[in-house]
Write a structure and sequence with these properties.
The protein is of the alpha/beta class. It has helices at 14-28, 45-49, 61-68, 120-132, 146-154, 165-173, 202-215, 218-224, and strands at residues 2-3, 54-59, 73-79, 89-90, 92-96, 112-114, 140-142, 160-164, 181-185, 189-190, 193-196, 228-230.
Length: 254
């Protein structure tokens, strides 16, 4: 079996992710799931998401909806306590380098940086927002990561980006958002979803994760920013895919 929690993994919180998994593993027990001793931090995310041996993974809701719905089971959503969003949900900040701009609509025709077009926070949520305004972002540059999208804004290689609000907070704490400011946000949608390929593990995993979060030392819980586990209704994922679907990539960054 394999387990990976890649979506908010950073060098400064790796030990806290390991501590959480150790407690999940302990709560699961050795049988019948044979949980791995350690998280697979360096596992390719698509290899993990599509592996029949996946015991616990974490996926952005756009690649789940577009590629994996029906092939993996939703365990739940970690609640990061994002203000003005339902528990377990997230949204993205529209950001730019131009302090004269206060409305994302003013930059809809400008250079838009996204981590990946198969990212809900970096692309899907932004295009859904734009569609509701009767338009779309069309001048797209893929950067490979939210941090790189912020860098593209800082270096004036792009004019606007949609950055996962949880990732933004991490980047801001690390001093990596200088010269970039928030001008709006997208609608909220289900956050990074915990998944498994083992249908009979869903209920035990929910129980084990809930126990682990409660037992997690305050220092690790604060470092990860998690408050609990939320089980969303299936219809929470009934969201429109970006149009056209053919533009979607195969990376799946958050």
């Amino acid at each position: 079996m394999i387990a990976a929690l890649p979506m908010y993994l950073r060098p400064e919180n790796r030990a806290s992710h390991d501590a959480l998994w150790s407690l999940i593993r302990e709560a699961l027990g050795p049988d019948p799931f044979d949980p791995p001793e350690r998280l697979s931090h360096d596992l390719d995310i698509w290899a993990g998401w599509t592996s029949p041996d996946l015991l616990l993974g974490q996926i952005c809701n756009l690649p789940y909806r577009a590629r994996l719905k029906g092939n993996v089971q939703i365990v739940g959503l970690l609640d990061y306590g994002l203000p003005e969003a339902p528990a377990g949900y997230y949204y993205s900040h529209f950001v730019t380098h131009d302090r004269a701009v206060t409305d994302p609509l003013d930059l809809v025709a400008a250079r838009f940086a996204c981590n990946e077009t198969l990212s809900q926070s970096g692309y899907g949520a932004a295009q859904h927002w734009a569609k509701r305004q009767g338009t779309a972002f069309t001048d797209i540059t893929k950067t490979g990561a939210h941090a790189e999208s912020v860098r593209a804004i800082q270096e004036r290689r792009a004019d606007i980006a949609a950055i996962d609000a949880i990732t933004w907070a991490m980047l801001d704490r690390a001093g990596q958002t200088d010269g970039v400011h928030i001008i709006g946000r997208t609608d909220a949608s289900p956050g990074q979803s915990l998944i498994t390929a083992q249908a009979d593990a869903v209920i035990p995993l929910r129980h084990a994760i809930g126990q682990a979060i409660k037992a997690l030392p305050d220092s690790h819980r604060t470092n990860l920013g998690i408050r609990g586990l939320v089980v969303p209704p299936p219809e929470a994922y009934d969201l429109p895919l970006p149009d056209p679907l053919e533009t979607l990539g195969q990376s799946g960054a958050s």
